Structures are given as C-alpha cells and as structure tokens.
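Re: [help] complex structure
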Amino acid sequence: MNIVFHEKTGIFHLFNDCISYMMVILPNRQMGQLYFGRRIRDREDFSHLLELQPRVMSSCVFEGDKSFSLEHVKQEYGVYGTTDYRQPAVEILQENGSRLSDFRYEGYVITPGKPKLQGLPATYAESEEEARTLTIRLRDPLTGVLLSLSYTLFAQDGVLARSARLYNDGDAAVHLTTAMSLCMDLPDFDYELLQLSGAWSRERHIRTRRLEYGVQSVGSLRGHSSHEHNPFLALMRPGADETQGEVIGFSLIYSGNFLAQAEVDNHDTLRVLLGIHPQGFDWKLAPGESFQTPEAVMVYSDRGLNAMSHSFHRLYQRRLARGYWRDRPRPVLINNWEATYFDFTSRKLLELAKKARDCGVELFVLDDGWFGQRSNDRAGLGDWIPNPLRLPEGIAGLAEQIEALGMKFGLWFEPEMVNLDSELYRRHPDWMIRTPGRAVSHGRYQYVLDFSRAEVVDCIYQMMAKLLREAKISYIKWDMNRSISECYSAALPPDRQGEVFHRYILGVYDLYERLTTQFPHVLFESCASGGARFDPGILYYAPQGWASDDSDAVERLKIQYGTSLCYPISSIGSHVSASPNHQLFRSTPLYTRANVACFGTFGYELDLNRLTEEEQDEIREQIRFMKQYRELLQFGTFYRLKSPFEGNVTVWMSVSGDRREAIVGWYRVLNGVNLPYSRVRLAGLDPDFCYEIMIMDGSEREGEACRSCYGDELMNLGLITSDASSGEIAPGQRHSCDFDSRLFVLKAR
Ligand code: DGJ
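Output below.
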C-alpha cells in the first residue's frame, strides 16, 4: 500500500495490491481525476490521461486557450458555474448571492492509519499499517473557504474511503447548499447501474438498468435512509455477474437524507455523486466554523459482485461495526412482537420465555408496549418508564425473572418519537418537529422529537440510561417508525433551518454514542419499521439491524439476498415467524423458515406455546444446529450462487475462514413435477480438500454424510441438488413441496 505524490507532474497515486487511484493538480490549480480501477504500475507521468482536445462550442477557462474546459476534464470535486455543466459536488452560497467557488490546490499531508471523523460514523484502522490517509487541502481565494479532501486507502482489498471537510477561513458567513462526500468522474459509461430499492416489507430488492445520457439517481428525503432506496450503488461492466467482471460499489456511511447519482454527459463521461441530499440542505458556515461530510466508500472488484461484497463485508464487519459484539456470534433470541403484539401481561411473557428457554433460546426481547400509557399505538411514546399496570414487577423485576430462567433480557425503545398522549409531550410540546403555522402530520399517530436539540437527546438519554442502570438489560432494539415531515426546529434561527435534517441525524448518532460507550456490553439492534434505516451509519453503533418487517421466508430470500450485496450476514436481523405468516398469510414449512433465518442473526418471533410438541422439538433441533454453526453462518465468507430475482431457486453459501467447513442453503419457491436434474456450482472451497456432505433435508437436522467430493469437483461440476421433484420418490426420500429448502453441510475430511 502506498500513496505517492509526483512533484514534477503534480500527480497523486494511491495504490495497493488491488487498486490504483490517481489525481492531478490541473493547470488552473483545481484537482482533476485521472484513474480508478485495477492496480497499475506507478510512474512519474500520467498526464497524457488528461484529454484536452479543443472542442467546438466549449467554454474555456484560460483567455485565448481553447484546450482547457472543465466541461471535458474529469474533476475530483466538481463545481458548477464556470465551465463544468454537470451536477456539482459542492455549492456555496455567498453573501453577494454568487454560488461559484474555485478551490485551488494548496498542499497535502499523508498520515499513517486513519483519523477519526468528528461526530460521524466512519470506518477505522486499528493499526497504522492497516491504512494510510491522504488529505489534500484546497482553498477558494475569494471566500477563504478551505476544502480538505480525504482519501483512506486500506492495505487489504480494493477499498477507498473518502470524505470532505469545509472550513470557513474567510470573514463572511457562507451557506453550503451542496457538500457531497464523493465525486467520481469516470471516462465512459459502459455500465449497468445496480441499486437496492423497494418499500416497506420489500426492502433492498436488486434493480438494474443500463446507464443512459442524463441523470439517474436514487435517494431519500425522508429523514432516514429509507425503505425505498439504500445508500448504495454498484456499476457493473457488461457481462459482469456474481463471479466475474468489473464492478465498482459505492456506499455512504450515513443514515439521513442522501443522494446517490450517476450523470452521463454527452461526451460519454460518467460522474457519480454520493452524499447528503442537496434538496433542502443549507448549512450556514460562519467564519471559523467547519462542516464534515459523511464518509463514502468505494470498492473495486474485477471478480464480480461476490468479491465486491466480500470487501464490503470485511470492512463493515471488522472496521465499521465496533464493540463487544462485533466479532461475537449473536445470541438466539425470541421477540414477543408477532407473538403478542400489544396484548401481553407479564404472566404471558414469562410463559413464552419459559417455553423459549426450554427450546434453547438465549435472549428474550420485550418489544413495543411496556412503557407509559402504551397499550396501543396512540399513546406513550416518549415516556420510557415501565407501565406498572402491565408489568407490576417493573422492567428490573421482569429482567430478573428472565435471568433466573437462564436467559438474557432485551428491550425495545423508539427513542426519537413522541405521542401527543404522553407526559413528555405535555411537558415539552415544543420538542416536536413541526413548522410554525402549518399543519403537522403524524405517522402511526406519532411525531418526531427534535433530535437536533441537545437537551432533547439528553432527556431521552437520561431515561434510557436510568433503566439500563436499574435493570439487567443485555440488548436494545432501537426502532424508528416514521419519516420526518414539516421539518423545522424551534431552536434554530431561520437561516439555519436547512441544517435540521442533518443535525437530527447527528443527534441520533450522539445518543447512540453515549449509550454504547456507557453500556458497552449491550447488544444494539437497529430497526426502522423493519429496514428503513439499514445503512452503514447505523452499523457503526448497532452491529445488527432488523432487515424487514416482512418475516415470510420466501420474501426474505429477496430481502436478505439484496441486503448481502453490501452488508455482512452478521448484521442481518432474521427471525422464524408464524405460519401462516402475518404479512403475507402464506404457509411455509418450519424448516424453510429456519433455513432462511439462519443466514442472519437468527431468532424466533412467534408464540411457541401454540406449536405442537413435534414443532417444538424441531425448533430445539434448529437452535442446537444454529449454536453449532453460527460462527460459520454469520462470519464466514458468503457467496450468492443463484438469485431469487432471476428464478424459482435461490442458492447461497457460507465458507469458514480456513475453508474446511461450508453450509449451502438451497431454496425453491414453487414445486414442480418431473423437473430436470439440477446441480449448482459452489464457490470459495479449497479445490484439494475432500468434503463430506451432509444433507439437512426437511426437518431432518441430524444428517449423515451421504457422499464426499473434492472441492474442485464441487466448484467446477457442481453439487447435485436434484430431489424427489425430478422423478419418482426413492425409498427413504421425502416428498418435495412448495417453499421447499435444504441445507448442505460440508466438512473437509
Ligand atoms: C416496527 C418494527 O419493525 C417491529 O418489529 C416492531 O418492533 C414494531 N415496530 C413495534 O411497534
């Protein structure tokens, strides 16, 4: 890994074994982009990469010189208003009404490791050898605004982390109306754009489209990263797929309004922008103040999407997520939400807990409804005090009883919200986000607290910390069940209202930071009406997140498959729920529900007391299996082999670090008759290891080794997955069915 500055040519070259990234100081002293991709040998001069052929009809920067127009030069952090007509990376509104700036190169520093980003989640390095950071300093001479562009190159993988910082070194206040985290100009647009989009209960579905002239983008204006779009994009070369071809992944470590955009200009160059959405954003930068953008991460892979995901998984699992739980297999939990909803008493909870304990569950999670006057969704949010009518023993007492059963206790909060019917609202009606003189909209009868205000965050912190000190709470589910509307803070002056969305997220991060620092052993699971805030920003604080309110196993195939593009399996909250399922009313076999959920954090969300003895035995077996293999399932190298977006069959697998063990998950949505023989090529195995294969078929989880094969055979010829659906049923074979699945456990001899 190296970062080199070639004085003579003004070229910066960052490279490791996988990638090269190059920039140049342009003749006008701005920064230009030269190259990002597979590593190339370093040398002094790459200036021929600047294509300066004069064009008819171009506006040019230098008097009398037709060869230098920003319109045709790839920029490092583009500005609109001179001769670059693309959407800008930065825009600064000045006192005289101008929005033009001209950031000129001043100098650079290279630091070993990676400096922290103030107040924001970011990737980190644990030693100086793991990463190196280049910071380039530029200045706009007229306003005195300083721009620092940071680039962290990690020693491992094709990963580059970027952010920008603006500092007002001038005499007058300015307004940042755009400040992106990343601007990446690429020389052509021969790519397919992949995005993770959906809606409530169908989050992060994979969608692709060919890039075209003009702007194509995804984003969120909802105050959270949203169900609708994830702050992630990938560019895929034609023919690239899961296992081959060039791919560049872009991910934003942020949980609020974002924009992820690809703009193709009419000379075929492509600009990718990633950062806080400029819509409504207006950050006042008084003299002496600075603004730090969130961090964006770019990953280059020349071995397809799986390899891109591996780089994201390694980075986000080990150098974004933090704390006690980062590397630890996650406890098998039961959550009472779909078992009871609001209809519970402590007796009912304890009955559920006892049954769960008997099945081997390790953590009991009490969801919504335990506090204030909360017996339905119209009251109580904001009053984080146990309701003595529902829980006479309080949370401390209930937690004690759960611990006495031999389980840990977890609790649900929705810290950012308030109901009109709450003590908190009656005491502080002005703490709600609302625009003066305008109607205020509710979402599920709830309103958003103004987390841009330190005193609001502090008050919620005090309530939560009190409970965490008093009761044995080992886990928190942090929910957020509505988007923000009528965004306005009573505590900020008119010229700072454009800061509220971002300040709100900073408040959320602040509360997370305080709680995770004060209570380092508590496992945090993020949630937002399912997966509306499943993003890298939150992963920094909460190492796992509830991926979706849709707990149907078949729907989950798509959700978990899409989520795995960017996020590690250890972060994907996944539960076995009731059948018929509560969202889709679909009935699926219990084993399929577990076979899907085990590629995630794994837990149960159903009333175990309603299950038959046989089903309870099956669950006991599932949990025993999960405990045996969770390290491999949650922290192994995950490969997507067959996509639920492309057919009736989904296959994925996890391989252990030493490649001696692997588990393949095979899922078929609809059954068929007399189906073709089927096999699937595996990945990531050691070609020379001979693997014993155990098939966990249906509810059969004991599995005996049925055959053994070498890794090369499994990866080149494939694993045979034919079953009863491809012919007559053999003796001892079970019938196949709709929503069928199987696990194959591979162990090297
Ligand atoms: C939405 C979450 O996604 C659910 O899991 C549950 O916690 C409910 N909120 C509770 O209100």
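The chain has three domains: 2-319, 333-634, 642-748.
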